[in-house]
Specification:
The complex is a heterotrimer of chains A (296), B (243) and C (328).
Chain A (H helix, E strand, L loop, with lengths): L3 H32 L6 H19 L3 H22 L9 H23 L12 E4 L2 E4 H23 L1 H11 L1 H6 L4 H23 L12 H15 L4 H22 L7 H19 L9
Antiparallel strand pairs in A: 1-2
Helix pairs in contact in A: 1-5, 1-8, 1-9, 1-10, 2-3, 2-4, 2-8, 2-9, 3-8, 5-6, 6-8, 9-10, 9-11, 10-11
Chain B lengths: L1 E12 L2 E12 L3 E5 L6 H9 L6 E6 L2 E2 L5 H4 L4 E3 L12 H11 L6 H15 L14 H14 L4 E5 L7 H18 L2 E6 L4 H6 L2 E6 L2 E7 H5 L2 H7 L6
Parallel strand pairs in B: 3-8, 3-9, 6-7, 7-8
Antiparallel strand pairs in B: 1-2, 1-4, 4-5, 9-10
Chain C lengths: L8 H17 L4 H24 L7 H18 L6 H24 L4 H21 L9 E2 L1 H8 L1 H32 L1 H11 L1 H6 L4 H28 L1 E2 L1 H4 L2 H14 L6 H19 L4 H15 L3 H9 L11
Antiparallel strand pairs in C: 1-2
Helix pairs in contact in C: 1-2, 2-7, 2-10, 2-12, 2-13, 3-4, 3-10, 4-10, 6-7, 7-8, 7-10, 12-13, 12-15
The chains are: A mainly alpha (296), B alpha/beta (243), C mainly alpha (328).
Chain lengths: 296, 243, 328
């Protein structure tokens, strides 16, 4: 290998980005686990988070880390609104309906965003220095994104395992009917889980801006939706923890593959990395639809 | 002649053995009742016979053929038909279309025109002809059960597997259903297997032979009247521990 | 053959006749009508799978894309044979989309619901990135055929292909897809699909080989998609770019059309395609750039409040009237 240093640096970077992918996919997985709904408009909520960070920074000089709670509250509120206006009526509808509805919601959000913000690429630069560690050079902002992702996943884990509501949500994921029999108000669990799922997703959009500071655009979402699907399936659809770990692995894979494929002449490493990812997706779906990291 | 033969059939789900080494033989034209409380393995047994599950061990032989691993759609042409405990109509199709689907894809294997005509006959026989153009999802639970019976009969099976088909029916309806079942047994030598949770009066009138299931195993098998007086059976139904 | 069962084609032929008459007699209406016909064809073809099976294929556009490439490859390689290259292209287009549908169907149709939908997105995106990644068929630069076509077929013939022949072929494809739909509905296959759409497990136990019928619908639908890609895209536009022909937006448009008109009905895709085409065409004139902003809430409203679509509603209202024979 000619460029091991390059590879090491890229893998490290991939691991940091992967943690953000993980947080970005936890919401998707949570919503599927509890409501059995695939949010096909997932990426639009990441886009909203990215714009939240952008506007808070450019208008009020609020650094992205402080935008995280703002994005979370915004996402929670939006989640409740969408749940009570649309999703609630579709809980027992055929999959066709929920797939189409979430897709349309995603498009609607994008188009409203375009109407308000236009379709130009925007960005901001928040610089707090760079870490030099042997072959690895990495801006502190990205390290911070990693720390935040890990902390969010950790807090969520504690919330899920230590609180009454969190335990109830896990019970519904395990067995809907069983939870109902145990006296859990499943309707409330649905709305809360959907809101938390959307909240997490919008929040993750803030973290994403630390990696693609100039890639903020109203149509940035679908790309993350597709990545989200690959990661969620890898981690076992419906398992937020699986999603977090799978996100991490996906980040490593994406950057590693990009680096290695870049050494082959005559191919587009960016496109081919995507291709390999989708081939993986199909193989996992066929061989072990519960996910590589999921149980039975 | 033996129509269905189960040989040491076993099905496990995780650590739970739902059906545990069950042997069963059903003769052509026989009327047999399978009785057992909820969770005794009856439904799993039906799913093994109709092909929804493939057993972990043992063999299923129908009409002389080993069908253990045959998919469900390959079993109906041989002459199997069943109903479901909770009726499963094709909701947006009409009642007539539902029954016609049975005639098209069951042993009868009719073409569309024939099947629709045949459906009318069975709807008249069961007595729900006036509902023929109604969407099946709009039926009451009881009407759905009548429709499922018509659908299963339209498949022209050699063996009819009924799942709680008479539960909750009016006594005069039960009389009518039993009469129809006796008629197809007599005229077409159809074997009728009827599964019930409780030892209701209807089953004692109808079945010649009863098999009592308990915790995945065959507890007792024999002539209906004898089985009903068997102390082990009485204990199961009084909720006491067995043996 | 029982001709009575084909009566619902009569109102369809009437609508087609009116559209064609307007296109031919009113100045400047040929292109708008061709635009509507594209959406009718798209809806009609997709309905055979989405409408009849209830499975959501988010990667449907890949079949149009492969059809487009099939025609492009034929024009590039067989144009020395003259106009024969066009029928070769049509055959190649169908073959390529049918082959892909066989491959995808054999594996992905084992999955259900959300898993199937996700897998199909994966197939479409994967295919697009394969074309771009290994620079297949021109990679991201695509195929630009206009100059080449002018050189080999002549300027006039090329213009005739892209401004008239392609549109006529799209109309024929749309109508053929409708005939295929009603033929399926009238056969055992139609009843098998109806059953599996409602309850796949019960359908199996009723003796229906669900895999066989799903794959048959999938292949038929994909074949028509290939024809649309070959005619409405390659022949009409004379260029192919992977980011266009694998664009998931076309899948969404097809879904909207089918749902608006009524999934699984014969006339629904025509009604849906016409309304959608009209709205998009005139909205893009009056409100350029915000068509999707208007269409998205309409789709949400249909899904939540009106899941049977327009045709489903009309059918329900006319159930016991003599009209019902003509409406399906």
């Amino acid at each position: 290998m000619v460029v091991p240093e390059h590879l090491v640096s890229n893998l490290f970077y991939g691991a940091l980005l992967g943690s953000v992918y993980g947080v970005a996919t936890m919401g998707l997985s949570l919503i599927f686990g509890v409501l059995r709904i695939v949010n096909v408009g997932h990426g639009a909520f990441i886009m909203l988070g990215a714009f939240t960070a952008f506007w808070m920074f450019t208008l009020y000089s609020v650094i992205p880390i402080l935008s995280i709670p703002i994005a979370l509250i915004f996402g929670l509120a939006l989640g409740f609104v969408i749940f009570y206006s649309t999703i609630k009526r579709l809980i027992d509808a055929p999959e066709l309906s929920t797939l189409l509805a979430t897709f349309a919601i995603g498009i609607f959000i994008e188009e409203v965003a375009k109407f308000v913000w236009g379709s130009d690429y925007v960005g901001f630069s928040w610089n707090i220095g760079t870490l030099y560690l042997g072959p690895i050079t990495v801006p502190y902002t990205k390290l911070l994104a990693f720390v935040c992702s890990a902390a969010i996943a950790g807090l969520l884990y504690i919330w899920f395992t230590r609180t009454k509501l969190g335990t109830a949500i896990r019970a519904v994921v395990e067995d809907r009917e069983g939870a109902m029999v145990c006296g859990i108000n499943v309707g409330r669990i649905y709305s809360v889980s959907f809101a938390i799922g959307i909240g997490l997703t919008v929040l993750s959009g803030v973290l994403v801006t630390l990696f693609v500071p100039v890639g903020i655009n109203v149509y940035m979402g679908p790309d993350y939706t597709l990545k989200g699907f690959v990661i969620a399936v890898l981690g076992g659809l419906g398992s937020p923890w699986g999603a977090f770990i799978a996100g991490f692995l996906f980040g490593l894979f994406e950057n590693g593959s990009y680096t290695i494929l870049g050494m082959i002449p005559g191919v587009e490493p960016f496109a081919l990395t995507r291709f390999v990812a989708f081939v993986f997706l199909l193989i996992i779906l066929l061989l072990k639809p519960t996910g590589l990291l999921g149980g039975e | 002649m033996t129509l269905l033969k189960l040989e040491k059939v076993t099905k496990r789900f995780g650590g739970l053995t739902a059906v545990d080494s069950v042997d069963l033989e059903v003769e052509e034209g026989e009327a047999i009742g399978i009785v057992g409380p909820n969770g005794s393995g009856k439904t799993t047994l039906y799913n093994i016979i109709s092909g929804v599950y493939i057993p972990d061990e043992g063999r299923v032989i129908f009409d002389g053929k080993d069908i253990t691993t045959l998919p469900p759609h390959a079993r109906t042409p041989l002459g199997l038909a069943r109903t479901f405990q909770i009726p499963r109509p094709f909701g947006s199709a009409t009642v007539r279309e539902n029954v016609a689907i049975g005639a098209m894809f069951g042993r009868a294997s009719m073409d569309v025109e024939e099947a629709l005509k045949e459906a009318d006959e069975y709807l008249k026989l069961i007595g729900i002809h006036q509902l023929r153009d109604k969407e099946a999802r709009l039926l009451t639970p009881l009407e759905k059960r009548f429709m499922e019976l018509a659908r299963a009969l339209a498949m022209r099976p050699k063996m009819l597997l009924l799942d709680e088909v008479m539960a909750g029916m009016h006594p005069s309806d039960i009389d009518k259903i039993i009469e129809i079942l006796q008629k197809i047994r007599r005229d077409e030598h159809v074997a009728v297997v009827s599964m019930v949770e409780h030892l209701m009066h209807a089953i004692t009138r109808f079945a010649e032979r009863v098999v009592v299931m308990h915790q995945g195993k065959k507890l007792v098998e024999g002539e209906t009247a004898k089985v009903l007086n068997d102390p082990r059976v009485i204990e199961v139904y009084l909720g006491k521990k067995v043996m | 053959m029982n001709l009575r069962a084909y009566k619902p084609l009569i109102p369809m032929m009437a609508v087609y006749a009116i559209l064609i008459a307007i296109a031919l007699s009113v100045e400047g209406m040929w292109q708008p009508v061709a635009y509507f016909m594209f959406y009718i064809a798209l809806g009609q073809a997709f309905n055979i799978f989405l409408g009849l099976t209830g499975y959501v294929d988010f990667g449907y556009v890949a079949f149009l894309g492969l059809g487009a490439y099939g025609m492009g490859i034929a024009i590039q390689n067989f144009s020395h044979l003259g106009v024969i290259a066009i029928p070769i292209g049509i055959v190649l287009a169908v073959m390529m989309s049918v082959l892909l549908s066989l491959a995808v169907g054999a594996v992905a149709l084992r999955l259900r619901g959300a898993y199937f939908a996700i897998a199909t997105i994966g197939v479409n995106e994967g295919f697009r990135y394969l074309v771009e990644g290994v620079r297949l068929w021109g990679g991201t630069e695509g195929m630009i055929l206009s100059g080449f076509m002018r050189k080999t077929f002549g300027r006039e013939m090329t213009n005739f292909f892209s401004t008239f022949l392609a549109d006529v072929l799209v109309i024929i494809v749309a109508f053929s897809a409708a005939v295929a739909t009603i033929a399926i509905l009238n056969r055992k296959m139609g009843y098998a699909l109806l059953a599996l759409r409602e309850d796949e497990d019960a359908a199996k136990v009723m003796g229906i080989n669900v895999t066989k019928y799903k794959i048959m619908a999938f292949i038929t639908s994909a074949g028509f998609a290939g024809l649309i890609g070959a005619t409405a895209w390659t022949l009409k536009l004379t260029y192919i770019f992977p980011e266009d022909v694998f664009n998931i937006h076309y899948t969404v448009e097809a879904i909207v059309i089918v749902m608006l008109g009524g999934a699984g009905t014969l006339l629904g895709p025509m009604i849906g395609g016409l309304i959608y085409g009209l709205m998009k065409y005139y909205l893009s004139v009056t409100f350029p750039g915000i068509q999707l902003l208007i269409l998205a809430p309409i789709l949400i409203a249909i899904v939540v409040a009106f899941p049977d679509g327009l045709m489903g509603y009309i059918k329900k209202k006319t159930r016991n009237s003599p009209l019902s024979e003509y409406l399906r």
